[in-house]
User: Fold these one by one.
Assistant:
Number 1:
Amino acid sequence: MQALYDVPAPAKLNLFLHVVGKRADGYHLLQSLFVLIDWADTLHFERRNDGLLQRHDSGDTLPPDDLCLRAARALQAATGCRLGADIHIEKRLPAGAGMGGGSSDAASTLIALNRLWGLGLTRRQLLDIALPLGADVPFFIGGRHAFVEGIGERLTPLDLPREMRFAVIKPEASIATKDIFSSQCLQRSKSVAIVAGFPAHNSSDAKNATGTENGTDSDASETVVETVRLDAEGIAMLAGGFGKESFGRNDLQKPAEAASAEVVQALVLLQEQFGNSRMTGSGSAVFAHVSGKDGIDEQSIANISKVLPSKWSARICRSLTAHPLRGWLED
Ligand SMILES: C[C@](O)(CO)[C@H](O)COP(=O)(O)OP(=O)(O)OC[C@H]1O[C@@H](n2ccc(N)nc2=O)[C@H](O)[C@@H]1O
Ligand SMILES: Nc1ncnc2c1ncn2[C@@H]1O[C@H](COP(=O)(O)OP(=O)(O)OP(=O)(O)O)[C@@H](O)[C@H]1O
């Protein structure tokens, strides 16, 4: 195979995100519902026989050693592959948005080069290469919506009962994930969800979720344990936005609101227009569940766009059925 063109790298939204513990190395343990949406970067890959990796960008400027190059190098190192690639990135996803843009680019690069270079690695094998690249990369390799735990490595895949739609606003300001996790305003969730009755989930244990099992967290004594089933009803409850009240919170939202007035402004705009609003990941993008018929939400977002400051973006996004590259990997 000489080239792979038009490879998508979709974004994610965190419908809720609870910080439930902290590891000894300072990384925070999370519980979050990750949903894949139809806002995506597009990548193109051309094989090189000289082993070199070169990136060519269109759209926003990326760091010289971006996550795609780091992913490609990690794949070469893990497999001893001597092939290289020209990687073209059409960057559409805003960086520092909490939508996982860089992580998704890295995941699509691993999946595409595995194919282009004929390496035949399985999803399981790529997951091992993915985590050191970034906490969100395993989710995108997983290829399905998921209840995510740990720092992002424990995935319980799930299907949404039906398509969901969201109004998403990305303010001009971008937010560095590190600043939010180290904020004085960050407060730990006092409740931990235990997933019950789901065969793929083999660690249904609160101690495991909070880090108390291996002695990494000493501040989890007041934890309230809540049992959630990942059947259709349980997923609908966790996902919110199907006519029920949204589940949980985003614990990173308060620190982000303290850090950026633009996040507050965007949340207020969505709340006024759609009656709900929440931040995704570590921000700065925010979203609202929408369910209007006959293009009414598209019209509302078009009206909002007219009054937004320049360099802000707003759009209606839909949940995907699954990651478009899901079929490219054997489990
Ligand atoms: C907030 C999320 O977007 C949720 O999807 C992700 O957990 C963030 O993942 P990411 O952007 O890939 O973050 P990384 O690049 O791995 O981490 C950036 C920095 O944020 C902090 N960090 C990140 C993830 C985490 N679970 N706990 C942390 O404390 C660490 O200081 C880390 O050095
Ligand atoms: N291919 C890439 N695309 C976007 N950002 C990249 C890429 N490679 C490296 N980065 C760097 O990673 C940082 C985070 O970008 P990204 O878009 O992943 O953040 P995010 O939207 O906050 O995602 P997350 O939900 O993972 O926190 C930025 O500072 C950016 O410079």
Number 2:
Amino acid sequence: MNQADICFDSEVYSGLSQDGFHILPGKLSVEECNQLRLLFEKDERFRNTINMTRYGFGQGTYRYFQYPLPTIIQSLRESLYSQLAPIANQWTKRLRLNFTYPEDHQTFLQNCHAQGQTKPTPLILRYRREDYNRLHQDLYGEIAFPFQVIFQLSQPGSEFSGGELVLTEQAPRRQTKVSVINLNQGDAVIIATQYFPRKGSRGDYRVQLKHGVSQIHRGERFSMGIIFHDAK
Ligand SMILES: O=C(O)CCC(=O)C(=O)O
Ligand SMILES: [Fe+2]
């Protein structure tokens, strides 16, 4: 894991505030991706397994980790949180929301737990031919951190085709805009969980964001999601 390549400077801030997402290239090594993929088979690591067809979420399988999280996921969750929390707090001010995100993830989780959100939310997803993930938002209770991070664990082209990560943004009085995010194995993308503030001529306005995955045409695609709030 390369900590040095995340630098949450003004470019990250303006990207997130303009588009609601920002790509972090080469966040994980191929070796780390392969290790994370292998975890998918280890039942004892997970608290719940979701067959997406059964819930109408799409087609494919995802598994929620249980505590304690694998070390690499725990450390990514803490370090990404502490870098994103200051941006989250600038956003809440711009959106005139009455909530302050603590500096460290542990304190944030205490807030979640006090609201009955106690279950860990980091997950690994596996898609095979014809699988897909419908547009959605990952909200699991009243408390939601405004960012989440998605990691590509498979290599497009050699391992699968299709299966693009898709974001839709909905601004007031506009038709929906779509962005297709092409990630290589090991890349990650920070996305807005629910909505983000965008500067307009008459002040900031709220843009809603959803994410999903287009159908896989060939092969197998694994991804990992780090969501910072816990679930009810
Ligand atoms: O498979 C993907 O790229 C999307 C994963 C996802 O929905 C998530 O991490 O919340
Ligand atoms: Fe998601």
